[in-house]
Amino acid sequence: MKLLLVEDDASLSSDLKYQLEAEGFEVDAAFDGIIAEKLLNRVRYDCILLDANLPGKNGYELLQSCRRQQLATPVIMITAFGEIEDKLLGFESGADDYITKPFYFKELLARIKVFLKRSEHYTAATETLKIEDLSIDLKSKQVSRAGNIIKLTAREYELLRLLAEAEGSPVSKKDLLSKVWGTTFEGNTNTIEVFINLLRNKIDKHFEPKLIKTRIGFGYYLSKD
């Protein structure tokens, strides 16, 4: 598995690269956003570790640029900014996970493995989930509506998949947080609201009928009714 580590702290970057390579990963390191962007244009990575405060082009700007270009690679933001507003900005920019400095390497490793295990699991799947004209191919992770391909980030895809698999039953915010972010995630249910809004903009905004519904007190579900 190939990772891109974008961190301007040379000491931290060196330590993380060493530990990740000791775990069997192939790691490219970049120290500013511009170099990272050039690497992303040339190389396919399985996961990106991205610092927010970078020279050249900061992590939020780089991530926004990547998502505009339809890059769906999972991105874990690594930053010293721990306020909820900073985390929400990261998620709105397209981040899939968020870890605040200082952190334990084992926690970072666990989060990376969550994404990679999901990738391996669904590569073997052949099933396609369908709700009205919405189609979710579990093998290719390709999502389309009315024949139009819809590009989602890894987190958005996981949320949509969970809602689709619930077959119309509401899924609570807490369940979505636990299943998509894991039990170690320190955010709150506002994170789910942000991601549901992002999904609605992609899945429902330009289509009818609207499929992503809210059942107050119970959670979110997919239905044409």
Give your account of this protein's structure:
The protein has 225 residues and is an alpha/beta fold. It has two domains: 2-121, Rossmann fold, CATH 3.40.50.2300; 125-222, Arc Repressor Mutant, subunit A, CATH 1.10.10.10. It has helices at residues 10-22, 33-42, 59-68, 84-93, 105-123, 154-165, 173-181, 190-203, and strands spanning 2-6, 26-30, 47-51, 75-79, 97-100, 128-131, 134-137, 142-145, 148-150, 212-215, 219-222. A five-stranded parallel beta sheet has the order 2-1-3-4-5, with helices on both faces. Strands 6-7-8-9 form a four-stranded antiparallel beta sheet, with helices on one face. It is globular and about 55 Å long. The N and C termini lie far apart (42 Å).
Primary descriptors:
225 residues; alpha/beta; Rossmann fold; Arc Repressor Mutant, subunit A; 2 domains; five-stranded parallel sheet; four-stranded antiparallel sheet; 8 helices; 11 strands; 43% helix; globular
What secondary-structure arrangement, pairings included, does this model have?
Elements: E1 2-6, H1 10-22, E2 26-30, H2 33-42, E3 47-51, H3 59-68, E4 75-79, H4 84-93, E5 97-100, H5 105-123, E6 128-131, E7 134-137, E8 142-145, E9 148-150, H6 154-165, H7 173-181, H8 190-203, E10 212-215, E11 219-222
Helix pairs in contact: 2-3, 6-8
